[in-house]
Design goal:
391 residues; alpha/beta; 5-stranded mixed sheet; two-stranded antiparallel sheet; 16 helices
Length: 391
């Protein structure tokens, strides 16, 4: 049986006595002293006249009851007035042209501009009733039966490992990423900063609006002068950079030079692996330069062997999730620069920004959590019979 509980101060009035105060004052026209003698608080004593006046003042004749002020008792209103609804739509139409406008963004705007605190669920309900929907752009990779079996075997092998054994085997999850600077041309820069907004509140018929356009479908095809290739990796110890390199792809000779200079070994040891001095296994995808005979010999000399993952399986390489987080963080700062009318950032400043983000405590915590959730991702792949896990 459901239980409804109400907490009141011992010197306050219950509902029956609150009703008596209003009736004696309005219907019978009694004085406050007379009413005080006929009303009892929760302790059985006579209430103060100031308390009865507050009860009477709070009574709403139209509603036929006392209206409680939720902000004074910790509760939030769950319904929006027509004025609040109009304000939410107006702010949405303005803010979605400047940033990724979510229900949380509108909640902050409503509190700052109107002093009204409304639940996010109520805001989303208002937008949907006004014809605005949160429309995602999501695509999941499809796999053949043979590729599904390969992914399934890999995921099952990971799940069978204990936590300690998995951390020992996953000494380093490694891959490269191509970051890019925003262009200097004002229009191109605005288009660039608009890219990546995969979700937005809009009406279903607004897909072709020019004001909402600007998404570049080929962000990776940026010119060489703006490309910043980065190679790095993570484990439960955090994230570490292996190298910034000039070309978009490593050659076998370039990679061997990086390994000989100890950069890969230094990155692994910086994350405090289970075996401080090796040997280590490095999880990576099927980049050709990593699997040549020369690369394998050079890495073996440093106590490093490659742990290959199934082809076309970015969800099975934990570092891919970190790249997504890093891109989002950089993109946020690019949009902030544009919003505050700062000039486009240069190459040296961009690399310094990337290093600052990566070395932050927040980034290291994100990397450690991603590595710690690797087994959970593999369980999801098994549950989907080799299908792609959530990004």
């Amino acid at each position: 049986m459901p239980l409804v509980q109400e907490v009141r101060h011992p010197q306050s009035l219950d509902f029956a006595n609150e009703r008596k105060v209003v009736l004696l004052r309005d219907v019978h026209g009694r004085t406050w002293e007379d009413i005080r003698s006929q009303v009892r608080n929760l302790r059985g004593g006579q209430p103060s006249i100031s308390l009865m006046k507050r009860v009477y003042k709070g009574f709403n004749q139209e509603a036929g009851r006392r209206l409680y002020k939720y902000k004074n008792c910790g509760r939030r209103p769950v319904k929006a007035t027509k004025a609040v609804q109009k304000f939410l739509v107006q702010r949405l139409l303005a803010l979605r042209l400047q940033c990724v406008c979510t229900s949380a963004t509108l909640q902050r705007e409503l509190l700052a501009k109107k002093g009204v605190q409304l639940d996010e669920s109520a805001i989303r309900k208002v937008l949907r009733r006004q014809g605005y929907f949160w429309l995602p752009k999501a695509q999941k990779r499809k796999y053949s039966a043979e590729r599904r079996q390969e992914r399934l075997r890999f995921a099952q092998g990971v799940v069978q490992l204990s936590r300690a054994r998995l951390r020992e085997k996953l000494a380093f999850s490694m891959d490269g990423v191509l970051l890019s600077l925003p262009p200097r041309d004002p229009i191109d820069r605005r288009n660039y900063c608009a890219h990546g907004d995969g979700f937005m509140w809009r009406q279903r018929g607004e897909a072709g609006m020019e004001q909402l356009a600007g998404q570049n479908p080929y962000p990776s095809q940026c010119p060489h002068s703006r490309a910043v290739p980065l190679w790095g990796g993570l484990s439960e110890g955090g994230f570490h950079v292996v190298a910034f390199h000039k070309a978009r792809k490593f050659t076998t000779e370039e990679w061997c030079n990086v390994v000989r200079r100890g950069k890969l070994k230094k990155a692994i040891q910086a994350l405090e692996p289970m075996k401080p001095h090796g040997p280590w296994k490095v999880l990576c995808d099927n980049e050709a330069f990593l699997h040549t005979a020369s690369s394998k010999r050079t890495m073996a000399a440093e106590g490093i062997t490659v742990w290959s993952m199934p082809a076309s399986s970015p969800d099975l390489n934990p570092v891919e999730k970190f790249w997504a987080w890093l891109r989002k963080r950089i993109h946020h700062l690019d949009r902030k620069d544009l919003r505050e009318k700062r000039p486009a950032i240069g190459m040296l400043a961009f690399k310094a920004r990337v290093r600052a983000i990566i070395s932050s405590r927040r980034a290291q915590t994100v990397a450690a959590r991603i590595a710690g959730g690797f087994k959970k991702t593999c369980k999801e792949v098994i549950a989907k019979k080799g299908g792609m896990a959530r990004s």
